[in-house]
Amino acid sequence: MRGRQRRAREAADPAPESFTIDEEVSHLTRIRSEPSQRILGAFHAGRKRTLSTFELLSGREFGRSGAGGFSAADCAYVGRKHLPTKGPWCVDDMTSEAYVSQFSSDGSLLVAGFRGSRIRVYDADNGWKVHKDISCQSLQWTVSDIALSPDQQFLAYSSLSPIVHIVNVQSGGKESQANVTEIHDGLNFSNADDDDDYPFGIFSVKFSKDGQEVVVGNNDRSIHVYDLRANKVSVRIRAHAADVNAVTFADESGNVLYSGSDDNLCKVWDRRCLAREKPAGVLTGHLDGITFIDSRGDGRYFISNCKDQTIKLWDVRKMSASIKGRQQRLFDWDYRWMSFPSEARHYRHPNDQSLATYRGHSVLRTLIRCYFSPMYSTGQRYIYTGSSDESVYIYDVVTGDIVERLSWHGSIIRDCTWHPYSPTLVSSSWDGYLARWEVSGDEGDPWLLTDNDQRTSPPRQSYTRHLLL
User: How many helices (H) and strands (E) does the chain have?
Assistant: First the structure.
């Protein structure tokens, strides 16, 4: 043991490595989030200089942007210069930890899941009023994940059990108590051959883009796809050698899946050719368990958050048919209660296939999530993530810089969600708060959170009736 740790210390780079990124993805990101050449030429005749929002808007009024007005990239450039960093304002103050949060695809609804057995749906267009207050069915410990169907009609929620429940969030009643005021349909992902004494739990759940399928990742090392029309599990893949903490559809086609596991690997699965449960490819580079995956939506790029304290950007065209080299695990530690070994912080996997690595945030104690920023308002120029150091980090995809760090909460921020069109970001923390960050706001608003409101945990209540049911 001492010899292995000594070799690890010798291999570790004592100085932080310089940030590098693949030129192709850097170029694609820039052209979607920076002024078009037509705009630059009209204003500066080829000279390179940062344009202010005032210059762009005034130039458009005087016709300098051309008859076509602003392009999508011009709009994204303006939007990304005005980040949601003011506040925060309180969306809700709960008596249990906030685990997950998610805006609907049009931004009209915000859904948040809490420890205990609560999910709340908020009307983001109407003063953040509670649209639906859901008491969950047969919850095991916490709401582990939530997913809204593309038509925003149904909500799927999971916990540490093999059942995903479906709720109609557009039904008439505001209160939805499982199988009392409303039926919460259960999708059973277990197999008849499963050992009932050790049922698996679900960590990740996603709807397909057509709303006809639900995919889950679980602690049975598997990926399962449920066909809602046929009302049965249609695909079972023994995908990894450890818990599958994250799974998502790559794009609108639904044919390709990305998964991430505690075996340190990201894998790509093509459902059109799943012979012998073999992945289409494997991506190596992380040094510890993957906690979350977010697809860019183009079937090519995705990001992963990891217990090695990094986010990595991947291109599926660079994947390998098999694992490259022996999986690295240089240190024996448990992220649930230990600090990350300082000597491992800047170690790089010798077979790292990632395009870029983002460092600064902290991934401890829980499966913290990361995302690309919205296409409409930022051109996906940023990556944002929760952190165990009670902050939200926003990274520039191209430079790797931390452009903003949002700090107010008194406990871990496990999840956060950015409005798809407006400069609004909501952080969900283990202190029990859902907090809203804006580009501007009324500092006299009574919902503005102050230092006096801070706490390290929510007001305590008994969880006896919620746990291990």
Answer: 6, 29
**Cα–chain-centroid distance for residue 342?**
26
Q: Is the peptide bond before 88 cis (omega within 30 degrees of 0)?
A: yes
Q: Indicate yes or no: pTM above 0.85.
A: yes
pLDDT tens-digit readout, 58-93: 666 655 555 556 788 888 988 898 999 999 999 999
Contact by Cβ (8 Å): 182, 196? no
CA–CA dist 192, 219 (Å, integer): 17
pLDDT at 273 over 60: yes
User: Could you state, in order of their start, the residue ranges of all structural domains in the chain?
Assistant: 85-453
Bridge partners, 14 (sequence order)? none
Q: Among all chains, which residue has been given the structure tokens 């944002």?
A: 384
Amino acid identity of 357? T
Supply the DSSP string of 389-423, one letter for each residue. TSEEEEEETTT--EEEEEE--SS-EEEEEE-SSSS
Angle between helices 53-61 and 37-44 (to 10 degrees): 90
Positions of E strands within 322-462: 356-359, 370-372, 382-385, 391-396, 402-407, 413-418, 424-429, 433-438
- Do 112 and 428 meet the contact criterion of CB atoms below 8 Å apart? yes
| Spatial distance between the Cα atoms of 219 and 265, rounded to a whole number of angstroms | 15
Reading the block at residue 331, the tokens are 């240190």
3-state secondary structure of 218: strand
- The CATH number assigned to the domain with range 85-453 reads 2.130.10.10
Task: Indicate the DSSP class of residue 458.
Answer: P
**pLDDT reported for residue 325:** 62
Query: Could you give phi then psi for residue 393, rounded to 5 degrees?
Result: -105, 140
Cα angle value 221/223/227 (rounded, 5°): 150
Residue that the structure tokens 């390290």 belong to: 456
Q: What is the pLDDT of residue 38?
A: 64
Distance CA 293, CA 311 (A): 10
**Which residues does 437 contact at the CB level (< 8 Å), separation at least 6?**
84, 85, 86, 87, 88, 392, 406, 424, 425, 426, 427
Q: Which residues is 417 bridged to in the sheet?
A: 426
Tokens matching residue 168: 């109609």
User: What letter represents residue 100's amino acid?
Assistant: V
Percent residues over pLDDT 90 in the chain: 72
d(CA 139, CA 155): 15
- Are 96 and 112 in contact by the 8 Å Cβ rule? The answer is no
CA atoms within 13 A on the CB side of 111: 23
